[in-house]
Amino acid sequence: MRMMRGWLIVVIALAGFALWVCLPDTTGFRFDSDGDGVEDAGLRVQQSLGLDIVGGLRVLLQAELPAGSFSIEDLRQTANNVGRRVNALGVTEPTVQVQGSNRILVELPGVTDRETAVRAIQQTALLEFVDFGGLPGRGQEFVDQRILTTQQDAILRQREVTADGSAFVNPMTGLPFETVMTGAGLQSAAAQINQSGRGYVIAFELTSEGATVFGPFTGARVGEAMAIVLDGVVLSAPVIESRLDSGGIITGDFTDEEAQTLALQLRSGALPIPLRLESAETVGATLGQESVGLSVRAGVLGIIVILLFMVIYYRVPGIAAALALLTFILFNYAVFKLIPVTLTLPAITGFLISIGTAVDGNILIFERIKEELRAGKGLDEAMQSGFFRAWQSIRDSNFSTIIICAILFFFGQTPGASIVAGFALTLMIGLLINLFTAVLVTRAFLSVIVEVMRQPLQRRAWLMGV
Amino acid sequence: MFTFVQKRRYFFLLSAAIIVPGLLIMLYSWVTIGSPFRLSNDFLGGSIYELRFTAASDGMLIDEPMLRAVFTEFENSSITVQSLGAPEEQRWSVRADFQDTETTEAILDRLETIAPLDRDRLFIEQISATVGGEVTRSAIIAVIVAAVVVTGFIVLAFRQVPDALRYGICAILAMIHDVLIVCGIVSFMGLIAGWEVDALFLTAVLTVVGFSIQDTIVMFDRIRENIPKHLGEPYEVIVNRSILETLHRSLATQLNAFFIMAAILLFGGESIKQFIGILFIGLISGTYSSICIAVPLLVAWEKGEIPFLKPRVLVPAVQEG
């Protein structure tokens, strides 16, 4: 009993916090202890709404290649990679579509920072590791210069255009520089603070195919220079210090933001087709605001009916369940704002339905308590075993669905499948919170009510729903 | 006492009477229109219209329902209407089905009647699907992987019960049952009422999968608890008792979900009703299948009634004399 009162305090504190998060004006807080202008800790609260509800930014990109020099498959692949970049930007539930024969249409819900978004989407991000072996001065004079590599040469040939001659070729041979590996050989890439303290670097890991090329190459050229080239421009020309079989670091004069963007582009792959920005403009919501309003109002009506049902059918325990259900709604909505989860009309509807099914845990418990009371057990004993017995089935049934959600979330990482991942995440959050509210929160509320109303409850079994 | 399990043949027949025609309808759809359901432009791609209206004489602005009404007239079923730029520019983007030139012309003529359309800056292009084939494929693979993992989980959770694997398999069979029922009905509605399957359908089916497993496990949990309590009783009796004991809970839970869905169906926005309808069918099927399919299947398996799974060993009767 004492433990339950402790829990009640925890629950009320959590509910207070959740209520604060749920308030429409809350934006979170920032904490900067040493006053250097860099955030040490903080909490960002934001309501993320989908394209159907708030609209967003519509970006139309055009292939910068003559028609006929690429296939529709290349364009699809480009659109896929654009989709992956958009997802990695943290924009959820975007739409990426191929429009006509040479355009890609991207819609980003609620995006306001148009410059960053467009830049991150548009850049080709063809990364190459280029052999600078034997160059006098180890090729340092080529840093920040445009060079022609065998890879770019091949791409140009495929597109039936000739190099414009502004890029440098290898002075030793008069031929394009030898490309050792492209960004396709990278498994992962992440921005990191430079060990020397200033600026940022990009740490990368190789795929197994990448390693079979990169390992032997670096092994044979220890002491020689190698260039890291992005979209034809030499970022840096480090000296190979040892054989690299699993990964390494790309140095360059990156700021935090540049490093983040480049790492993102490397992760999502180079674009097979260079893209030109045709237009970027705001786009309105796809659904009338009234449609959302109507559904939410309908949902609230449904919730009121559920609360009434629980109180009428289960009496005193029903009151605890109603309180627990309100806590569930509060917690859930707070988590949606904290992550944030993009709310679209279907997501809101899903949430409303999850409220309808959230009382299942309570129902299992209360039916159990009634059974125990009917079997002649005392109030405390009935509650004890009611919660204990029902817990097993609540645990197992919820866990199986949580497993399904985890797997769906994992598969939802495929480009374009963010709808599946978003759904799985929303459902999983609901189930986890429900495990907590239906069992612990209900119990905390019920214990306190029982303690206060012990006398009448023991005399009148109907108050317990029997 | 109502005997659920003893009536299992009727339940199996009832389900078969819904699933088999559903499968046939899906097959028929597949042959006639190339897929088991009528697909919306979320899956098929379609046309995107960029429209620019010049101000109407009475200064009235075009709004979303007006445009939607025009496109609906020409048998477009899933239409997305968005405004572009500032409202007074009167620029609109409409995503609709792909249609022949004549229909497109007719739509434009019809649009002209509500407000003058700037034909010079009109723009109609084909647009690809928002839900590519690989999304559907990865969702299907995900459900299959999830089914295998959940079977494993059930075997683990029910390890103290004899033949735990059966519980896992029966839960998955009930889940497949629910998915087939939902798919069959949607395919049927596509044929008679023009229901189209959009990205939301994928979400609805995934939700049904979750509901189904959850309901079945609650039922199995009672059996797990009752087996050691009533040792010596025939399996069939224990199982039937378990169903009756959890019936209250099943109905109460069902009722609560029904409250929300009915409220949204009656008073909610138009665009979400088909989604709710599908979920509703799925939820009913999920509860029905846990009581009338998953549990009776366990009994049928125990009794060796399922062909191939546990063929009854015929012991030759000892002849008297």
Largest sheet of chain B, in brief, is: 4 strands, antiparallel
Second-tier CATH architecture of the largest domain in chain B: Up-down Bundle
Q: Main sheet of chain B: which strands, in order across?
A: 2-3-1-4
Helix content of chain A: 40-55%
The CATH class label of the largest domain in chain B is Mainly Alpha
- The portion of residues forming beta strands of chain B comes to 5-15%
Tally of alpha and pi helices of chain A: 13
Question: What would you say the CATH architecture of the largest domain in chain A is?
Answer: Up-down Bundle
- Give the termini separation of chain B: 43 Å
Largest sheet data of chain A: 4 strands, antiparallel
Query: How would you describe the shape of chain A?
Result: elongated
Identify the strand order in the major beta sheet of chain A: 4-5-3-13
Helix content of chain B: 55-70%
Reconstruct the topology from this structure.
The complex is a heterodimer of chains A (466) and B (321).
Chain A: H1 2-22, E1 28-31, E2 41-44, H2 51-54, E3 56-63, H3 72-88, E4 95-99, E5 103-109, H4 114-122, E6 127-131, H5 150-158, E7 179-182, E8 186-193, E9 200-206, H6 208-220, E10 226-230, E11 233-236, E12 247-254, H7 256-268, E13 275-283, H8 289-338, H9 345-358, H10 360-374, H11 379-411, H12 418-452, H13 454-459
Antiparallel strand pairs in A: 1-2, 3-5, 3-13, 4-5, 6-7, 6-10, 8-9, 9-12, 10-11
Chain B: H1 8-33, H2 41-44, E1 46-52, H3 64-73, E2 80-84, E3 91-96, H4 101-114, E4 123-127, H5 133-157, H6 164-193, H7 199-229, H8 235-267, H9 273-302
Antiparallel strand pairs in B: 1-3, 1-4, 2-3
Helix pairs in contact in B: 1-6, 1-9, 3-4, 5-6, 5-7, 6-7, 6-9, 7-8, 7-9, 8-9
